[in-house]
TrEMBL record:
The keyword Transcription regulation applies. InterPro entries: BglG_antiterminators, Mga_HTH, WH-like_DNA-bd_sf. Keywords: Transcription, Transcription regulation. PANTHER family: CRYPTIC BETA-GLUCOSIDE BGL OPERON ANTITERMINATOR (PTHR30185), LICABCH OPERON REGULATOR-RELATED (PTHR30185:SF13). Residues 79-163 form the Mga helix-turn-helix domain. This is Mga helix-turn-helix domain-containing protein. It comes from Candidatus Enterococcus dunnyi.
């Protein structure tokens, strides 16, 4: 995720993350080897990192002692806050933010605003296009105006990963679109059962909805043609029949009071919510969802069967609660793979394969 940042930011992020993960004193030589940097560069950016931390009232987070080496001595929150500050200070971050919150970027205006040359911006565009290529996303420049093109669900999923990973628990970055208080109030009113999920999941739903609204605001609404063919039937049969949820038409009207959006956007938001394991543990949501995919022989069910057979879920797990959890895990991940085929991680940045493999092994081993 650091690949498209400038060298200075990327180097400081690498050193900071290395020190944070090691949790003990690291010699300059060790940092040189792990970060693939020479001594002069390591010492230069460690000093700069310490200065930035002090300027942001994080004095003493990076400790250096002769004979011992270097060590990060802060908390997890302090690490995430300093990471956040390093990234948001960078020009590439400002560029990405403008791509998502504005309809387009005028290169001349951007250069004047951030006191950089057009050469710097052109390099950012080149680096981003290289990074975005596997996700079928591209930045297009026409007459000095930059726009982002590609599959809309991929464009949004990258935003979920990027903004959630950076801002969660630190600040709300969508005030230009909608306030955090307004979106929390809306979600609690329209989806009362979701209050039973973990706080982190509810926060994710808020981020996802805010990013969706931002994309709609800039003229990038989704249509049903861009969603899986079973979307409408799945939501009507499962979501609206297993919760205390009002009917779809009423919900759509409530969404329009918040923001004018097409029906497909409401269905899309509900579908994305089903990529979260906890949704399947509400009421009889899991059994209804599984029955729907089975009866309609969806691609989701085909993938589900393959994974279930690989881990011999039915044979190894006899405890109902454990079986439901692991079934929910597989079903939600299958839906995520179908909805966001160009990515290989969950919104919380877990690799799909490792996430499924390690979690399934953990649960099945407990039952053997």
């Amino acid at each position: 995720m650091y690949a498209f940042f400038d060298r200075e930011t990327r180097t400081m992020l690498t050193l900071l993350r290395t020190l944070y993960l090691e949790e003990h004193w690291c010699s300059t030589e060790e940092l040189m080897e792990w970060a693939k940097l020479d001594r002069r560069t390591v010492l230069k950016y460690l000093k700069l990192l310490q200065e930035i931390a002090q300027n942001h009232e994080h004095k003493g987070l990076i400790d250096t002692k002769k004979g011992a080496g270097h060590k990060f001595v802060g908390t997890k929150i302090e690490y995430r806050t300093l990471t956040f500050q390093l990234i948001t200070m960078s020009i590439p971050f400002s560029f990405i933010s403008d791509l998502y919150f504005l309809k387009n970027i005028d290169i001349i205006d951007f250069c004047e605003k951030h006191f950089v040359s057009d050469t710097v911006v052109k390099k950012i565009i080149t680096d981003l296009n290289s990074f975005f290529s596997p996700y079928h996303i591209q930045l297009v420049v026409k007459k000095g105006i930059v726009t982002v093109t590609g599959e809309e669900v991929s464009i949004r999923y990258f935003a979920y990963l990027f903004f959630w990973g950076l801002f969660r628990g630190i600040t709300w970055p969508f005030d230009s679109v909608i306030s955090e208080q307004d979106i929390d109030k809306f979600l609690k009113k329209q989806f009362p059962n979701w209050t039973l999920t973990k706080k982190v999941s509810r926060s994710q739903f808020a981020f996802i909805l805010a990013i969706n609204l931002s994309r709609i605001k800039t003229g990038h609404s989704l249509s049903y043609e861009q969603l899986p063919p079973f979307t409408k039937d799945l939501n009507r049969e499962v979501f609206f029949s297993t919760t205390s949820q009002v009917d779809f038409e009423t919900l759509h009207s409530e969404f329009n009071l918040l923001f004018d959006i097409p029906e497909a956007e409401v269905d899309y938001f509900i579908l994305v919510a089903q990529t979260r394991v906890q949704m399947y543990l509400l009421n009889d949501f899991l059994s209804k969802a599984l029955d729907f995919h089975k009866n309609n022989q969806t691609v989701t069910f085909d993938i589900f069967n393959l994974i279930s057979e690989q881990f011999s879920v039915k044979a190894k797990i006899t405890d109902t609660e454990t079986f439901n959890i692991i079934t929910s895990l597989i079903l939600s991940t299958c839906l995520a793979v179908i909805l966001f085929p160009n990515f290989d991680t969950t919104i919380t940045n877990y690799d799909y394969n490792n996430y499924l493999y390690n979690t399934c092994l953990l649960y099945t081993s407990r039952c053997v």
